[in-house]
Amino acid sequence: MTKSFGSLVFTPAVKALQERYGSRRQYARLEQLGEMRGGLGPDEREYLGERDTFYMASLGESGWPYVQHRGGPKGFLKVIDDTTLAFADFRGNKQYISTGNLLTDNRVALIVVDYPRQLRLKLLGRVEIFEGEKANDWLPKVRDPKYRAVTERVYVIRIEAFDWNCQQHIIPRYTEEEIRDVLEPIEKQMEELQKANEELRRKLSRLDGKETS
Ligand SMILES: Cc1cc2nc3c(=O)[nH]c(=O)nc-3n(C[C@H](O)[C@H](O)[C@H](O)COP(=O)(O)O)c2cc1C
Predict the structure, then answer these.
(1) Is the CB of 97 under 6 A from ligand 1?
(2) In this structure, which residue's CA is closest to atom 29 in ligand 1?
(3) pTM for the complete prediction?
(4) Residue 93 in contact with ligand 1 by CB distance below 6 A
(5) pLDDT of res. 168
(6) Ligand 1 atom with the shortest distance to the CA of 69
(7) Using CA atoms, how far apart are residues 197 and 207, in angstroms rounded to an integer?
(8) SS3 53
C-alpha cells in the first residue's frame, strides 16, 4: 500500500495557497481518492520498464535539496514489487552526494519523464543502501551485464507515494534510438527514390544520345 501523494506534500503552507487560489477542494478530493490506491500497478511497471533516465532529489545535512540525473540501460530502475524499486548505483565522479545525503535522511523524490509521450511520474520513497556483501542478493536483480559500468552499491527504494503529472509544458524529445526507428522507413524510401532517379537519368541520357546522333 502507498499513501496519497498529497498527504506527504500538501503541507499547511501548501494547503493555504490552494485555499487562496481556489484549488483546495479539488485536491482534498484527490487526496482521499489516492488513499484508496494500492501500490505500483501494471501501468507504472510498464512505464518504468521503458525508461532509461530519471532525476532523484535528496536532502543534505545543510538542508539544501540536491537533485541528480540517473541514467542507464532501458528499465534499469527495477520494479521489485508494488512498493519497491531498486537500481544499481554506478561509479561516477566520486562525489557521493546522494549516498552521503541518504545517511542522514533516507527520503528521496524521483521524477521519471517520457518526453515523446509527454508523461511524467513522480515518486516519493525511503532508500536503503546495500553495499559489499550485503548487496549480493540485490546485484543480480539490478545489474545488466551488457551495460558497461561499475556498480558500487544498490539503492532500494520503498515507495510511499506516487502520482502521475499532467502533460503541460513537456516538450517532446527523442533519443537516438527513437529517431532511428522513425527515420528508418524514410531512409529506405529515400534510397529507393535515389535508385529510381538514377535509373531514369540513365534512360534519359540514352534517349538524349539517340536524338543527337
Ligand atoms: C568520470 C566521471 C565524471 C563525472 N562528472 C560529473 C560531473 O561533473 N557532474 C555530475 O553531475 N555528474 C558527473 N558524473 C556522473 C555522476 O558521477 C553520477 O551521476 C553519480 O551518480 C553522481 O552521484 P552524486 O551526484 O549523488 O554524487 C561523472 C561521472 C564520471 C564517470
Answers:
(1) yes
(2) 92
(3) 0.86
(4) yes
(5) 86
(6) 19
(7) 15
(8) strand
Give the gyration radius of the chain's Cα atoms: 25
Which residue CA neighbors atom 21 of ligand 1 most closely? 92
Give pLDDT, residue 212.
59
Does the beta carbon of 150 sit less than 6 angstroms from any atom of ligand 1?
no
Which residues of the chain are modeled with pLDDT < 50? none
Residue written as grid cell 548505483 = 89
- What is the whole-number distance in angstroms between the Cα of residue 139 and the centre of ligand 1? 21
Which ligand 1 atom is at minimum distance from the Cα of 90? 21
Distance CA 22, CA 18 (A): 6
Q: Map residue 55 onto helix, strand or coil.
A: strand
What is the rounded CA–CA span in Å between residue 75 and residue 80? 12
Residues 6+ apart with CB under 8 A from 191: none
DSSP letter, residue 74: T
Pairing of strands 151-164, 119-131: antiparallel
Query: Across the chain, where does the E strand assignment appear?
Result: 53-59, 65-71, 78-81, 84-90, 107-114, 119-131, 151-164
> Where do the structural domains in the chain lie, given as residue ranges?
1-37, 39-165, 174-213
**What pLDDT, on the 0 to 100 scale, is given for residue 135?**
97
Q: Determine the CATH number of domain 39-165.
A: 2.30.110.10
| Residue 95 CB less than 6 A away from ligand 1 | yes
The pair phi, psi for residue 72, each rounded to 5°, is 180, -170
Question: Cα of 93 to ligand 1 centre, how many Å?
Answer: 4
Q: Is the CB of 7 under 6 A from ligand 1?
A: no
pLDDT of residue 34: 66
